[in-house]
Every structure is written in structure tokens, then in C-alpha cells.
Amino acid sequence: MKKIVMMLLLTLSAMATELHWYDDYNEALNAAKKEHKPVYIFISSSQCGWCHKFEKTTLQNEEVKSRLAKEFITLHLIRDFDTIPQKFKVSPVPRHYFVDENGTIIYHALGYRKVECFNSFMDNTFSRLKDSKFKKKEK
């Protein structure tokens, strides 16, 4: 019985969604252009408790991970170590930016967010992206 349980646990953990996090802004934008996806940018700090909580809770939720993996290019920038373009604020953190494949900010938010709220951020991003593309086509 223990072997069956162990095999089941191994199978379930293998099925869990893993995210590919870029750590370079330009590489993430290049991937976004190739895949025609927006980029989710998570800016954190190594000393930020709310950042760590967001990483351990919301970003570990299977629904959130699945949506991010399927719908976005993911970029994690740590303000203490990474080069961050000047157009992004880095204090306070955590900061969340959603940009199009050209780097234009579509939606941004500040602070720790639970799953439901973060899902609404992703929804808002696609609503704004759709609206902006529609408006460009009208002109």
C-alpha cells in the first residue's frame, strides 16, 4: 500500500505546473514576441516578507501557475540584484506589472495579493489588452 501511495504522490507532483521564470527583461520581451503573449513582471526584494508570502502562497496555487504558464511570459526581477528598466517603480514591493510584447505597461498593481485578486489582475490585463488592440484597429 505504501508503494502505491508513493507512486501516486510522485505522479501528482510530476503533473504539477512549473513556471519558467526569466530574469532578464529583454529576453522576456523576445520570448513574448515569439509566443505572442503578454509578460507578467514580478518585482520583489530579498528582504520583503510580503514578497516571500506571495511566492509561497499565490504563486504556488495550481490555478494561478497554470494560467501564468499558459497565458503569459513570466519575469521575476529582484530589485537587490537585477537590472530593472527605469520605467518600472521598484519601491515599495511586491510590484506586479503586465506588459505587452513591446514592453508597454497594460496593467500594474502593488502589494501582496491572494489568488482571487491576482486572477482578477490577469483578467484585467486581457480586458485592457483587447480594448487597446481594438482601439488601434479602429483608427
What does this entry look like structurally?
By secondary structure, the protein is an alpha/beta fold. The protein has a single domain, classed as Glutaredoxin, CATH 3.40.30.10. Helix content is 48%, strand content 18%. It contains 5 helices and 5 strands, in the order αβαβααβββα. The protein has helices at residues 2-15, 25-35, 49-56, 62-71, 115-138; strands spanning 21-22, 39-44, 73-78, 95-99, 105-110. Strands 1-3-2-4-5 form a 5-stranded mixed beta sheet, with helices on both faces. The longest helix is centred in the last third of the chain and has 24 residues, at 115-138. It is globular, with a radius of gyration of 17 Å. The termini are far apart.
Count of individual helical segments: 5
Which radius of gyration do the C-alpha atoms yield? 17 Å
Helix and strand pattern: HEHEHHEEEH
Globally, the shape reads globular
Kindly, what is the distance between the CA atoms of the first and last residues, rounded to a whole number of angstroms? Answer: 66 Å
Strand content: 15-25%
Q: What structural class results from the helix and strand content?
A: alpha/beta
| Average pLDDT for all residues | 87
Helical percentage: 40-55%
Largest sheet: 5 strands, mixed
CATH topology: Glutaredoxin
Which blocks of ≥5 consecutive residues have pLDDT under 50?
2-14
Number of domains: 1
CATH homologous superfamily designation: Glutaredoxin
